[in-house]
Amino acid sequence: MEVEIKVEEFSKVFTSIVLEALPFIIIGVFLSSFIQMYISEEHIRRILPKNKLAGGILASMVGLVFPTCECTSVTITKGLMKKGVPVNMAITYMLAAPIVNPLVILSTYYAFNNNVKIVALRVAIGMIAAIVIGYLILILSPSDVSNIMKDDKYVINPCTCGCCTGNHKGLKPFLYHASAEFNNVAVYFIVGAFLAAASNLIISKQSLISVRSPVVVSTIIMLAFAYFVSLCSEADAFVASTFMAHFPLCSVMSFLVLGPMIDIKNTLMLMSYFKKSFVLKLTFLIFAVDFILCSLII
């Protein structure tokens, strides 16, 4: 009987993760394909600031006017980098967009009983962390994206529909590109969702609350909890608010900042596009920078 309950609980969590994220992944795939096929490098160069610091700041705010979740931003980032967007700007966008998303800001505001301080801290730390991590990645990784990205698997076959006049920018090549990209990332996402659902059963909120630890240890625990449970950024604030009575603010904030940036399913999605060494380096930097910034909260 207990096994049946566990299986049923696992099925519910797994299904909710998949259904919650799938629409956003599809949106991200289509946007990435659109960028890849219809936006030229010249267009991007005209828009982006020449100064990398200004570009990083701008990238951290794009999510305010172009709301995306953590699943969508991964595929969009891949498309941006393939089109020549500097690595630090693309990574900054990917990390900050799910935090500065207006829906996430609003849900955080309501989850913490209209506490503006929590909202401001989450947005500020998220943006600063994203900019810093983007710059560190720029320093530690090769500037040539071919050295950090896997070989492009989405070579568009010549269109045979007779309506594309050889430029491969018709509907059929676009759908071919989007479906190929979705097939690739979906495998990694499903595996990530499976692991996240399993983690939800293994790591319970009650077990974390029962742990009495120093601030440093509790912050590490909350970082790990955010990574493994893989909550949607629009909903994680409601879970985080229940920890306020048991954990210090810095620990709760580390949960709110890290979750939208990286989790199990996103790590595997990143590995579908980027080389393992780059993903591991990025994941380490996200944990380290978030830990340091959140530890500064008094």
Automatic annotation (TrEMBL):
It comes from the Bacteria. One of its GO terms (cellular component) is plasma membrane. Signal peptide: none annotated. It is found in: Cell membrane. The keyword Transmembrane applies. InterPro entries: DUF318, UPF0718. It is a multi-pass membrane protein. Keywords: Cell membrane, Membrane, Transmembrane, Transmembrane helix. The chain crosses the membrane at residues 13-35, 56-77, 89-112, 119-140, 185-203, 215-231, 237-258, 278-297. Belongs to the UPF0718 family. This is Permease.
